[in-house]
């Protein structure tokens, strides 16, 4: 039975490359045409493949509907939360999770730090979109025309002397973030607060969310916080793998990789 299921499932990636006839399917599977036909008929009955008028088979509409339904029902917060808690326990710092929705970046999860100093961020509230690390990550992932149009619509409040002052500077910052794959907010929103973040990506490689670690200067310096970048990226990658189905969930918190020069500013 397991061999039959394996063969049937092997047909789907084959047809993802384009329509194929019975002989091509049988050859790729290494089975007799009668066996391939039996598998194709079963998949056809479930709407997973479709037989065209030219007698070739292609992927069926039901497969795409199932994929879309699965994506819509994925809850990135539920998947990410255990990883955020593990990162918080390892570092002691505040950990955020954010998403981009209708022109705003919103916090959807937060794990508070162990120390008495608290940040003003709240779940469900928009972030300071022109300075926050999570916002930079999510906006940097937008298509270039959308990214540029949005940058020119935004206001650029100078929260601190380190805030990004205008659209041109913001687009340069987003280009840097897009290239390096991580982002920081070093006193751009609050002079005493620093932050480093990384994107969480779906199966298509697009950023579905972003996470960050934040801490005040009285606890760690910006330089000390930046040494956590490899661990932050490792955590984001673990969430991405679980969210996209690229790997089984880890049974323990992801370990900290050895820092590499290219990972640090």
Short summary of the structure?
With 265 residues, the protein is of the alpha+beta class. The chain is built from ten helices and seven strands. The chain has helices at residues 2-16, 22-29, 33-45, 61-73, 76-91, 133-140, 144-153, 167-180, 222-226, 229-244; strands spanning 49-51, 57-59, 94-101, 104-111, 183-186, 193-201, 207-216.
* Contiguous helical run count: 10
Shape: elongated
**How large, in whole angstroms, is the Cα Rg?**
23 Å
- Largest sheet data: 5 strands, antiparallel
The chain-level structural class is alpha+beta
Order of helices and strands: HHHEEHHEEHHHEEEHH
Given as residue ranges, the uncertain stretches (5+ residues, pLDDT < 50) are 248-265
Question: Strands of the largest sheet, in order across it?
Answer: 4-3-7-6-5
Instruction: Give a count of the beta strands, DSSP E runs of length 2 or more.
Output: 7
């Amino acid at each position: 039975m397991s061999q039959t299921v394996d063969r049937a499932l092997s047909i789907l990636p084959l047809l993802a490359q384009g329509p194929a006839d019975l002989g091509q399917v049988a050859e790729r599977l290494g089975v007799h045409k009668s066996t391939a036909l039996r598998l194709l008929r079963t998949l056809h009955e479930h709407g997973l493949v479709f037989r065209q008028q030219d007698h070739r088979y292609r992927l069926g509409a039901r497969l795409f509907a199932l994929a879309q339904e699965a994506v819509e029902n994925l809850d990135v917060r539920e998947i990410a939360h255990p990883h955020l808690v593990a990162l918080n326990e390892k570092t002691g710092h505040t950990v955020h999770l954010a998403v981009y929705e209708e022109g705003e970046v919103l916090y959807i999860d937060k794990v508070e730090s162990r120390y008495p100093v608290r940040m003003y961020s709240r779940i469900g509230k928009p972030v300071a979109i022109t300075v926050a690390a999570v916002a930079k990550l999510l906006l940097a992932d937008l298509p270039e025309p959308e990214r540029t149009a949005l940058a020119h619509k935004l206001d650029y409040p100078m929260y601190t002397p380190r805030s990004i002052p205008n659209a041109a500077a913001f687009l340069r910052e987003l280009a840097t973030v897009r290239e390096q794959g991580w982002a920081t907010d070093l006193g751009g929103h609050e002079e005493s607060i620093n932050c480093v973040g990384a994107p969480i990506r779906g199966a298509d490689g697009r950023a579905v969310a972003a996470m960050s670690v934040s801490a005040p200067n009285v606890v760690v310096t910006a330089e000390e916080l930046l040494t956590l970048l490899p661990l932050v990226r490792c955590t984001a990658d673990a969430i991405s793998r679980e969210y996209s189905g690229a790997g089984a969930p880890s049974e323990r918190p992801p370990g900290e990789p050895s820092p590499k020069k290219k990972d640090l500013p």
